[in-house]
Amino acid sequence: MRWRQVLTGVCDAFAGRFGRVEPRRAAAVFVTGLLADIEVKTCWQLAEQAGYGRPDAMQRLLYRAKWDADAVRDDVRQVVVDRLGDPDGVLVVDETGDLKKGVHTVGVQRQYTGTAGRIENAQVGVFLAYASRHGHTLIDRRVYLPKSWTDDRQRCEQSGVPDDVAFATRSELADDMITAAVKALVPARWVAADEAYGNNTRLRGELRKLRLGYVLAVSRDHLVPIDGGKTRCRADRLAADLPATAWTRRSAGNGSKGPRFYDWAWLADVGADGDPDDDGRHSLLIRRNNTTGELAFYRCWTPGPATLAQLVRVAGVRWAVEESFQAGKGQVGLDQHQVRRWTSWHRFTTLALAALAVLAICAADARTADRHSQPDMIELTVNEIRRLINVLLIQPARSIAYRLRWSNWRRRHQACAKRAHYARRLNLEFPP
């Protein structure tokens, strides 16, 4: 079956990164387990799903086994590019947060995260997605370390953060991933991102150096050079002064409920954003919700001529990263890692990207196969593909004796953890 070949092919792509056969097999089983229909995808559950008697092999894979997560990431990215690559591809950057308790998980602190929509105790990861006409998926990741971490080297050492890792803003992490993708010859012509990244002047400048066109959301108070760069005007003020004839209705792509139509206005010739000798084309794109009237603003740049239709398409493609986050968390447990250390986070997340790549490639193959053969059904979705993979490919162990052994193991392990927690709490309350 083609899907089995895809799963095997993705795992084989990075098999050579493991010097020993045990972690190599464990990695393949780990990726398969992330695709399995289990409630929580931690080392315990993945080991049980695979038929192991204990979680040691999975825990060793994330903690102590010798392998380079970044090298595996490179292999997974190449597999994605080989199947989904397109010269008109779009790199989409965004972040997502995982709510955490305590202070020991790498990168955790009280900070704003869009996952909760407010300031919470959370860990934030910055991700890069690749989107083309063939499909989309996540291809890179960075954990964000606040200054409260990078300024405390002892804390970093306890969590396994390398000594050469210094503080970097989320925009700098995004630039690092985009630059790495360009060096790896990922076929992309565009970059898209939300306001958190579009408002960053340095990131926009770095993208121009890479000769990547961009459609980056900016805030309503973003200052736009006009009159040949002599003056600057707020983006929302420019929108308010536009005549009715400046707006045109276009679709930003198809959504789950049909085409996503908005009203668009395009100021196709605004002043340079930085270097006045830049030979590219600067513009401001404005989107208006035709129901609520809500406005969104995009700072755009292209190394050569571009059309409104192209810019609108790229603005709409930005939602691919949101869909990838939803699939990553809902289908392969991207947010279910129960790890604290730097190395373990990168390893778990990399294997989750591999599992997500399997689903993205299978979805692309299904669209190609079903384009003319199933007019009375929708295309196979990532969610449905994972369900079918479980039914057709994954055979979990389900004997009663096996389940009872795992139940006993969990209860003993949890009893040990309970005793340790009680002892720690009593020592804090009544120190010797």
Automatic annotation (TrEMBL):
It comes from the Bacteria. Residues 14-224 form the Transposase IS701-like DDE domain. This is IS701 family transposase. It comes from Micromonospora inaquosa. The lineage of its organism: Bacteria, Bacillati, Actinomycetota, Actinomycetes, Micromonosporales.
